């Protein structure tokens, strides 16, 4: 039986509420404030990992944190070099969800989920990748946030296996990812009317390439050795980390 979790997409109501609470207006003087504030929080999450999850901290350092206020990015994404997140969206997250989202994007890089697979259904593949990294994070002891894409009966299955299994899902449209993969079209967010054409010059995701992907695998192996993290088949790390 397919496990279905009811979720609401991070859409208009969330953004409208954030803008009302924060009294956010499309004024240039407001932008540095919220971006710097949120950047400080994301960096603080990394600093906390240095104590509690040193492997995650080392891996996260491979991504430059880039807060943006851009109509093309509703939540967060990564190109394998930078981690872009919408500062207005971030301001509405609790600490657990914010940290989990960052860890989630880091492990998309480690697991090699950055390249487009045009022969697959994009949404279903994204969900399968989300499940793979979320299961991995859960097994490493990370608190799972409420909106996590996770199929408990498939905890140790690969994204490819989960993708096939999801072919029988009766309502894939009800499954909503917290992030956006750069290989997918960047959906236009439902921001207030005054922000509909907002673009941020800091939002410049780079084209994906094999060198970036292979670099992540090398970095993950080096970080695991440095942190003396066991590289075995327990399911706590991806199989390609076994040396």
UniProtKB/TrEMBL annotation:
Gene source species: Vreelandella rituensis
One protein family per Pfam: DUF2201_N
Domain Putative metallopeptidase, first and last residues per copy: 51-144
InterPro entries according to UniProt: Put_metallopeptidase_dom
Record PANTHER family: SLL7028 PROTEIN (PTHR38730:SF1)
Protein's name according to its UniProt entry: Putative metallopeptidase domain-containing protein
